[in-house]
## 1
Amino acid sequence: MQNMTGRFEGYYNWSETFTKDAVMTLVISERSLGKTYGLIKQCIYDYLNEGVRFCTLYRTDAERKEVAPCIFEKIEDDPDFKDEYLFKSNSKGAFIAKKPKEGEKEKWEQCAYHLALSMWQRDKKRGFKPCKRFIFDEAIIDSMDRYHGYLPGEVEILGQMLSTVARENEQNASEVKPRLYCLANACNFVNSIFIYFGITEMPKYGYSWYGSKTLLVHFVKPDEKRSELMKNETAAGKILSHSKVSRSNFDNKFLDANDDFIASKTKNAKFYMGFVFKSKTFGVWIDRNEGLLYVNEKIVKNSPYIYSLTTSDSRINLINLKKSSRVFRDMVELYYAGCIRYETIELRERFYQLLKMFGVC
């Protein structure tokens, strides 16, 4: 059985990405490019050739139970496997077997684990066989999705999960090197991975390294002909052509990828107030001559006008929220009037999430 090389026409090319051998890889592309399919297929080759398992990761236990049983629905019809192998998956793991001869039973072998990040403390008590590749799909949550959210400390939990399963130490570090692959669409620039690695500027198309070459981001440049075909010839493309969502789904462009209202505070701007929201500090400065508010991460120490809107465990601080509500109502009016400027795109989008609690939609 050979490794998967090259690419099928129109699908994501994993071969070049594998040669980079990053500890953590984030692939951002348009939808329906076959990222997940191609990666799972390579994981199957890994198991058949080397006997090493893979691991799929989900944010919650509910998501794991719903999605994990379906990971082989396309793979089982793949021409490279369908004549020789059988596949099955449940909420806890994935299995493979050679097609038995008539009258014989299948001999199932486990080739993958399915784990939920929310259960990592529990899973620390388990034992695992070596896993080479860890797959975290939908790593960036769509800003339109109001039913799912990032876990507190999500990237740290991903690291803890690799530690739990791989059990790397000085004796075995050279045996099976675990690699984490995060798969996403360009639906929200403000996401847990960009925030963790301090990515405040839009990545360029192609490969970029971050975090002392720990994170490799592959921002895939879309094929224009394919994008036009998807937009003009598919039902979803025709429906979404009237929406900005089309940029993310088919053009691989972040919906919030623009520099509207991005500006540094002026020399004449004076400190107005500060907020701490989900461990992020916002400093609000006012230039009365320009009639503008400027938002950055700088605050004046010991100022009485600094409000902590979340508690140490990320719950909403209702006392301070109520105390500052009148200020925020005024700020919402200024937001709609276009009178607020932000130092970075990330700050703009995170401050928008804060304003949503006070009526911005």
## 2
Amino acid sequence: MRKVFFILFLSPPFFLLAQKSTDVSLSVSDSGSKKVDTNYVKFYKDKLIIALWWSERRFDILLAPKTGSLPGDSVNYIANSNHVTGVSVDYDIFSFAFGFRSIAGGNTRTGNTDYLDLGFNINTKGLRFENSFKKYTGFYDNNTKNYVQPFIADSTPYFQNPSLNLKVIKSKLIYSFNKRKFALSAAYSNAKRQVKSSGSWLLIGNFYAMNFYSDSSFIPDPLKNRYGIILDGLKRVNVYAYSAYGGYSHTFVAWKIFYLNLLAAFGLETQYRHFYTSPENVHFKYWKTWFAADWRIALGYNGKRFFIRASSIYDITNYGSDDLIFDMKFIAGSLDVGYRFKFKAPKPYRKFQETKIYKM
């Protein structure tokens, strides 16, 4: 069975050496250790931390007419990013990662997806500020068998739309109320370690902009008559959304080294949706309030030196209208294996550690 792993959010200063695909990451954490209960959380700010990681991510988009829809009317677009191998380096409050090997995730039947993933994380004692930009180009329809006959498994090509493009820019702020005994970053980055079981209620704010567009209609020609004279030419959807919700995360620790982290949060999201069609050149827009959810899981071994972590994230959103079903899923994950080395900071950096900016 295909494994899917979660990777930390990605960032601009480092670039993957892969054709048309970029996968890098950078994060910053505060020292904030004076008020943290070290019986629960260890902060390794005197270690140089190096890890090898493997990652994969994918988008799964479902389109279907809402009125009189038949099972064969739906379109299920899939975008598979490359399977990426990379290295991450952490020291004190700084962390970055870069990919050095990329293997295409598609084949001649599905085509390949070109992608760009950028991001920037800030981890303080009680806050995690996540920022990301994703761009995926090239999708195939997993439901091609509903309108292409005969469809022979393992040989018939799927319908491909190489111009179909998805862009998402997102910022998310996660506040942990139990910041003395719980560190969310200990489950998803490498500079901290949860040594006793603990959890925290969370408050989450989120903003993002999504742009989904194509040179031609999203709907394959054999299905256009099922979508009506307006939606059969749908070729662009823009969404601007913000949300506020609450949740809970808990890290279960055994023998101070094995851990399982679970995070679940729910709330409301307000979206401003824009739909564009061609050749009718119809543009309709409206506000919609919808449910929002965020759930994650991380499982690993986290010793004083050696650590291994498998983590994943699952995100689902809805952009449907009165006439259209439009569901989007994002599944991503990573496997990280690393080691913490002793490292003495150079004198200029030790002076930086004494500044007010560092101790904020």
